Amino acid sequence: MAVQINPSILSADFARLAEEAKAVEGADWLHVDVMDNHFVPNLTLGVPVVESLARATDTPLDCHLMIEDADRWAPQYVEAGASSVTFHVEAAGAPVRLAREIRAKGARASMALKPATPIEPYEDLLPELDMLLIMTVEPGFGGQAFLDIMLPKIRRTRELIGKHGLQLWLQVDGGVSASTIERCADAGADVFVAGSAVYGAQDPAEAVRALRAQAETATARASWACGH
Q1: Which of 62, 130, 173, 190 is flagged as catalytic?
Q2: What SS3 state is found at 41?
């Protein structure tokens, strides 16, 4: 399982998004947080900005939709240029149908769970997905402290992925930094969203490299990764 680092532009300078995207060109994906001030108490950016950002960078866009009525809006982000689209299961009326629609349009389909949402009821949905996102903070704002109580949930999710023999990426988002990324990797995550830990650093590209090295070291010795 290859470690992937996805800097979150929620922590970038919105007035310089094209430059901020170039500052992390060594990253695997650029994580784009879309918030509607309804599903979460914050308002960020939408389809037009994603379209512009997709033209401004060669780094693929990983769009995380923290919005209501995901069934209606998620496909539009694929059309806008996102290579991966994450919808929240709490906001989706028909998650299987939505995941299939996202895939049919040519993007990777991902489903996100808030901290209080258990993974077990959605076990049968996992084969329909390319990635699962475990939120390690309450969605809505960057810069929050990592919730250690999410580590057992990450472990349980990794066990379910292994149980079904799936090539499913397991992403974590919220409070991921040099002090928490190794714990996430040890628990089973292989895709890491980092906001202030990257864009708050003096050299964002170096921060990406350092986080990747930490995660790779932790993954190499993690029990779940043995045999992969």
Answers
A1: 173
A2: coil
